[in-house]
Amino acid sequence: MSTSTPPLRVGTRGSELALTQTSAVADALALAAGREVELVRIRTEGDRSTASLASLGGTGVFAAALREALLAGACDVAVHSLKDLPTAPTAGLSIGALPVREDQRDVLCAREGWTLATLPAGARVGTGSPRRAAQVRLARPDVEVVDIRGNVGTRLARVETDLDAVVLARAGLARLGLLEKVTDTLDPDVILSAPGQGALAVECRTADLAGPLGEALRAIDDLPTRLAVVAERALLATLEAGCAAPVAAWAHVVPATAAAPARLELRGGAFDPAGAQGLVRTGGVELPGLGEATEDPGNALGQDVAVSLARELGEATAVELLDAGAAAIAGLPTPDDVGAPDLPGVLDGADGTDARP
Ligand SMILES: NCc1[nH]cc(CCC(=O)O)c1CC(=O)O
């Protein structure tokens, strides 16, 4: 490595989870860029303030400070948990890389090795996420959902004190080396994960995509991850929902076989926070030639085309959910609400706000 090149500055939040996952991305980026890296800790309003997150403007507060640091030149890239990143684009910034994502599923960490199915009636299950609360109530109307806040360690500690179980993202526990706390990995048919869960986003200034940094970012980008999360986030954006809404989505690429081309499959859900009902719709799109050697380039799908197909799949699945009444069920904004204040409780207890990853 050349000593004349200054280190690449990687912006991160300061929590243990954020530092752990940013370090892993920074190491990969250092290899790809052939450059030293340096972590720059950014204190976000959400970390600093004890005010309710709803009063600070919701879950975007964590991402906003990192984005400001990037635009101000205080760092060269910023690493976010994708599920905490608002879907609205920021002028001048781009997601330069989406590294291979971890297992996206939610897990239960319970006393006595209980699973969601074997929890005793009346068990106290902690989560601050309306999406998780709604689905736990649907699956187990006989347990009590308790609204909790705090980082992963704080929430796990409550299982030993006043709760019987908590629901967390498997990816966060994996990165922290805490998988031994998991007593049940929740099947997507039972608890569907948040859009983008398990994925990290490396954001950069759009202008840098054209230079060597852009090349390094492309080297750590994973196309199947990108296609999956584009579909999931297009669904979320089309529902006009944020990361605090009781909306779930999971997409994944099913690789090609001798008989069939690769496919992107998406499952999306919108849930009544009280657990009375949930709507799920699934869809898929063929990706002919994806990932195949380009002996017949005319037949192989370009990356941009594949990304467009993924976005359309997310939008179409969201429209199916809306046609089936998702907005009313999940308390999402409807055309009549335009200009109206946010619905009560929608920002409160967000996936992204309660966890401080
Ligand atoms: N702020 C919530 C948050 N954001 C990202 C993760 C976990 C890791 C991920 O989904 O990539 C968590 C913790 C949790 O939901 O248990």
UniProtKB/TrEMBL annotation:
Region listing for Disordered, in residue ranges: 334-357
GO molecular function, one term: hydroxymethylbilane synthase activity
Superkingdom classification of source: Bacteria
GO biological process, one term: heme biosynthetic process
Gene giving rise to this polypeptide: hemC
Species this chain originates from: Georgenia ruanii
Domain Porphobilinogen deaminase C-terminal: 227-278
Cofactor(s) it depends on: dipyrromethane
This protein's name: Hydroxymethylbilane synthase
EC number(s) on file: 2.5.1.61
Keyword annotations from UniProtKB, A to Z: Porphyrin biosynthesis, Transferase
Catalysed reaction equations from the record: 4 porphobilinogen + H2O = hydroxymethylbilane + 4 NH4(+)
Keyword Transferase in record: yes
Domain Porphobilinogen deaminase N-terminal: 8-208
NCBIfam families, per the entry: hemC
One Pfam family recorded for the sequence: Porphobil_deam
